Amino acid sequence: TTIGDSAFSICKRLTTVTIGNSVTTIGEDVFSCCTSLTAVTIPDSVTMIGNSAFEYCLSLTTINVNEGSAKKIL
Asked: CB–CB of 48/69 below 8 Å?
């Protein structure tokens, strides 16, 4: 249910991510420095996103979240 801290940090070939519905927590720095990451889809099951989870994702242009998710995360 948790993607641990720094799990995919510095994965330079990672381009898109779809988080599974069973995930509730995205840890700190999980996708940091994934410089090719362009799109992320976050389901409404996610209630916590850690600090700097997407830091230095310089190509990230799309983050898809359900309306209910955005309210919980913010």
From this structure: no
| Whole-angstrom distance, CA of residue 13 vs CA of residue 3 | 19
- The DSSP 8-state label assigned to residue 3 in this structure reads E
Span 22-56, pLDDT tens digits: 999 999 999 999 999 999 999 999 999 999 999 99
Q: Token match 């700190």: residue? A: 28
DSSP 4: -
Burial class (CB in 10 A: 0-12, 13-18, 19+), 3: buried
DSSP string, 14-74: --EEE--TT--EE-TTTTTT-TT--EEEE-TT--EE-TTTTTT-TT--EEEE-HHHHHHH-
pLDDT at 28: 97
Q: What does the block give as tokens for 40?
A: 């992320």
